[in-house]
Amino acid sequence: MTVLQMLKPHAGLRVLVTGGASGIGLVIARAFVDAGSRVHVCDASKDAIDTLLKVEESAELNAITATLADVSDRAAVDRVFDDVATQLGGLDVLINNAGIAGPTGGIDEMDVGEWEQTVDVNLNAQFYFARRAVPLLKEAREGGSIIALSSVAGRLGYAFRTPYSATKWAVVGLTKSLAIELGPDNIRVNAIQPGIVKGPRIERVISARAQQLGLSYEDMEKDYLAKISLRRMTTPEEVAATALFLCSPGGSGISGQAISVCGNVEVL
Asked: pTM for this one?
């Protein structure tokens, strides 16, 4: 196998992407399909799943299957894995992508329910999926892989976004611990830490932060970009490409790492 060939995942990987019917998750799912993988996604949005499956059907692809599921609901997670067994017959890769932005505000004025929801979706769900995936990944012929989506907020402090930042730091701790635990079973565990990623989600985040600080959206966006060494946002495709590499033979020696794909965000 040449070095160039090592940059592409083996064909036929069985991949589960949480939160995979839209946004970064969908871009990752389609990237794996393009690489010859079989992909199942779950998502909490029925509209997103319906749109995805309609596009798949109209294009006569049928390469992605899906389950409607709230990732913070353990019974729903069990249903996802029932569908994984039916649709994929096993698992080689888990992409723990699902997450929410959480509330924006000072810690003293934050709603406890919003804090708990952020922890449930961003952290507890990653545990629920990992615990169900690991027995399947142990049987993966080429070794299993877990990729957890953290964030640049998982390596930097993030004022007024404490629930989000706290959960994303915790994802890194979970990743590094599982890498040690599962390495002897030939399962690699890594985290990707996207920065400010283009799309509707960051637009909502910037808008909320601007309102919190009493700034215009345009000024807030300029402030975000000024903190990035490359002075631009990251694209979802750059995040997906990193996930593909981590699951390729070229990435087979990488485990226990938190890899920032962010243009070098210097501070939040």
From this structure: 0.94
Range of the domain at 161: 9-196+235-261
Spell 71-108 as b/e; 16+ CB within 10 A means b: bbeeebbeebbebbeebbeebbbbbbbbbbbbbbbeee
Give the mean pLDDT per block of 10 residues along the chain (268 residues): 93 97 97 96 97 83 91 98 98 98 94 98 98 98 97 96 97 98 98 94 87 93 95 97 98 98 96
Number of structural domains, the chain? Answer: 1
pLDDT at 63: 87
Q: Which two tokens stand for residue 59?
A: 């294009």
* Residue 189 domain flag: yes
Q: Is residue 221 part of a domain?
A: no
CATH number for the domain spanning 67: value is 3.40.50.720
Terminal CA-CA length for the chain? 42
Structural domain includes residue 52: yes
* pLDDT of res. 214: 95
At 60 the pLDDT is: 62
- 217 in catalytic set: no
Q: Looking at the domain assignment, is residue 15 inside a domain?
A: yes
From 128, 164, 217, 224, active-site residue: 164
